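User: I'll paste a sequence; please echo it back and then give the predicted structure.

Assistant: Echoing your sequence first, then the prediction.
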Amino acid sequence: MSPLDDQKGVWKKKGTGKSRKTPKGRQVDEAALAEVGALLGDRPRRRDLLIEFLHLIQDKHGHLSAAHIAALADEMRLAQTEVYEVATFYAHFDVVREGETPPPALTIRVCDSLSCEMAGAEALQKALEEGLDPAEVRVLRAPCMGRCDTAPVLELGHHHIDHATPEKVRAAIAAGHTHADIPDYETFETYKASGGYKTLRDLRESGDWQAVQEKVLESGLRGLGGAGFPSGRKWGFVRANPGPRYLAVNGDEGEPGTFKDRYYLERTPHLFLEGMLIAAWAVEAETCFIYMRDEYPAVLEILAREIAALEAAGIVAPGYIDLRRGAGAYICGEESAMIESIEGKRGLPRHRPPFVAQVGVFGRPTLVHNIETLYWVAKVCREGPECLNATEKNGRKGLRSYSVSGRVARPGVYLLPAGSTILDVIEAAGGMAEGHEFKAYQPGGPSSGLLPASMDDIPLDFDTLQPHGTFIGSAAVVVLSDTDRARDAALNMLKFFEDESCGQCTPCRVGCEKAVKLMEAEHWDRALLDDLCTVMADASICGLGQAAPNPIRLVMRHFGDEI
């Protein structure tokens, strides 16, 4: 026997003096490897497809077991830690460790955002938890699902139930109705018959991208995801950088109260798709990535169908449009976090500069646009800039799609002049709901905070709200009445930010948590909250932490009697 056999070494199995038969760490289960291999089929094992592959396993098995994570890591030649950290970042993946019990086959996600909370979501969730067998059905709270106009809302599997009640849920469970309902929409053939894609074809044949850019700039179109940057100007920034270039569409409409993108995609998806292809032509993009939130299963199905129709018609080459599915992370609405997710990583916002127009997807120049922005690009190119700039009200030009919910008679999406005030918006929505008196409103999602009813003459547009400590954002208008407390609404908003912070930077991660604790007190510590707001706004990496203090500041400013 060799003298080395009695010595300890990494090449020996501890205590036996024998060599290992396997590497250290969790071993790959052959059965799990075969299952994962069958799910992935002949798809390329690219790193950027990791999230798509996690969805395949989650959809098939209802969770991600340790064995399947190990098998996927082996299949993709990644460290298991890489797969695990991505899987645990996103809310829609259920990671089950060894020895843990997998979740029930059926999951109900009850929306608890502001509009749904006002409509009784908390009582609905409690009733479901008490009335359903937890071994058969799991009931979870979930952030905004983009259906605020039909609050309260829940998702049963992939089936959304509007104006949800326990009775509707029980009926859907009994019927096995857990799939998404696909609404009637304008298909490729219908859109093409009415002149669709003629503009794109003409531009591809003899168009001048700079002339199109000038037309878009003349229309006054600005980014409608919330930032409001002049849309056409982005094209020149991206074109100024050497190729290859990409286009990334931000369809992660996660700002609570916002549902305008879903509204358009469920009705006229090809107007958006043509606008996207025009923008891609303008910057000579090699691929178009559409990042669509997982909370919109019907939209994902519509886009998959219609992209296939575009490929079959020869308008785009197979694979030119790459549809990516989010996994439940509000932070991925931030453009650089979205790009990280497209690359198959955790959605952590990047430090800037460099900006995505220079260093975007896979490190290449990338044009990023919102769904509704591209919808209007197509309309401007077809109808001329006057389809936007010919409308004027209160000194503002253009049109805005307002997502309106809360205490109004008819919640929904309303296309109104950009100079409309909150009174105009409420009037378009049928006035206040019966028995409710207007008290306050959220002008642009929770990031914009709350304004009192007395401030009812401000045009709800870009640049008009900043002097008042807020902004229009995604034009997600939630109307509160005399039956609501502003401090409760602000607390709902901060709990959302606390849940959705990516955790990368301390001011946001810890700041949101501390803010919630301070706001839950009977009396708010104004001085401490004000200091906290300053630190969060000044030191957070991205817009989530920078804007999260707005609800606190505006409640302290306008609703001091409540705190």
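The first helix runs from residue 30 to 40. Residues 436 and 454 are 16 Å apart (CA to CA).
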